[in-house]
Amino acid sequence: VVDTITAVHKNKIHEAHEHLNKQNTSTQFTKDSEIEENGKILFLDCLLTRENKSLRTTAHKKPTHTD
After folding, report:
1. Which end of the chain is more exposed for a tag (fewer CB within 10 A), N or C?
2. What is the pTM for the complete model shown?
3. What is the pLDDT of residue 46?
4. What is the rounded distance in angstroms from the CA atom of residue 48 to the CA atom of residue 60?
């Protein structure tokens, strides 16, 4: 597994990260510093939106610059 995303209350991020890393010492997770803003977060090519206790995903393409 290269990339994962987990929905955790912002006050429990550190606790959840420690719990995951204690499950198997040969597999260690890192955490990105990205936290949702205004109920939205970009992950890979998806925009995740938190609405009324549920998550919605939509495809997202970053603008690219071409000559």
Report:
1. C
2. 0.60
3. 86
4. 9
